[in-house]
Design brief:
The complex is a heterodimer of chains A (117) and B (113). Chain A is mainly beta. Chain A has strands spanning 3-5, 10-14, 19-21, 24-26, 32-39, 46-52, 59-61, 64-69, 74-79, 88-96, 105-107, 111-116. In chain A, the strands form 3 sheets. In chain A, strands 2, 5, 6, 10, 11 and 12 form a 6-stranded mixed β-sheet that branches. Chain A has a 4-stranded antiparallel β-sheet with strand order 3-9-8-7, with no helix packed on it. A two-stranded antiparallel sheet of chain A has the order 1-4. The model of chain A has no long low-confidence stretch (mean pLDDT 91). In chain B, a hairpin with a 7-residue loop joins strand 9 and strand 10 (103-104). Chain B has 113 residues and is mostly beta strands. In chain B, 35% of the residues are buried. The chains are: A mainly beta (117), B mainly beta (113).
Chain lengths: 117, 113
């Protein structure tokens, strides 16, 4: 079975601090994709990044960076110099190459990040 | 920028009533999905749809649920006889191919009273 664990339920930081959101996944498959989504207070799910299981290169996009380590089955997300607008629930998700080619996302429980001014 | 659109944003219905949630996926996307999120909990997969048929469904997606693509643009989720525990945010999503990222709509908050 596939599982995504986000052990941090809530994190609170002060603006300009760096913060790392942890994500640990479980799967027996060798081919899979990992995602991060942001859910701001307005409720929608905003896609942030997709990473396939064969690409362990870290990625940086502005203040966001992701650290994928297959050896520890982790896909952690770091926000540098956090801002109040980063306050949201962040979900890590996993998808496999499903039968029939469909994509089914398995989500973690989310980490609620609050950035205080 | 293309986006997935869901209507209505909020629906209140009485227990036992039928409800239809509507979605307009991104126009060139081929795969469509419904997910739900009970308040404060994680997002759960309900069903995926491709080539006018269900590709995969979860154990949540029982006989009370059905999906349909009645025309070239809409994708609907019907709950035949709503229960209190169906109260949740329902998200529609679409992706261009099976291995590309899914884009989500803004959600429909369903409240069953």
């Amino acid at each position: 079975a596939q599982k995504v664990t986000q052990a941090q339920t809530e994190i609170s930081v002060v603006e300009k601090e760096d913060v790392t959101l942890d994500c640990v996944y479980e799967t027996r498959d060798t081919t899979y994709y990992l995602f991060w989504y942001k859910q701001p207070p307005s409720g929608e799910l905003v896609f942030l990044i997709r990473r396939n299981s064969f690409d362990e290169q870290n990625e940086i996009s502005g203040r966001y960076s992701w650290n994928f380590q297959k050896s520890t089955s982790s896909f952690n997300f770091t926000i540098t110099a956090s801002q109040v607008v980063d306050s949201a629930v962040y979900f890590c998700a996993l998808t496999l190459v499903g039968q029939g080619g469909s994509e089914k996302l398995v989500f973690g429980k989310g980490t609620k990040l609050t950035v205080n001014p | 920028e293309p986006e997935v659109t869901q209507t209505p944003s909020h629906q209140v219905t009485q227990m036992g009533q039928e409800v239809i949630l509507r979605c307009v996926p991104i126009s060139n996307h081929l795969y469509f999905y419904w997910y739900r999120q009970i308040l404060g909990q994680k997002v759960e997969f309900l069903v995926s749809f491709y080539n006018n048929e269900i590709s995969e469904k979860s154990e949540i997606f029982d006989d009370q649920f059905s999906v349909e693509r009645p025309d070239g643009s809409n994708f609907t989720l019907k709950i035949r006889s709503t229960k209190l525990e169906d109260s949740a945010m329902y998200f529609c999503a679409s992706s261009e191919f099976w291995n590309t990222e899914a884009f989500f709509g803004q959600g429909t908050r369903l409240t069953v009273v």
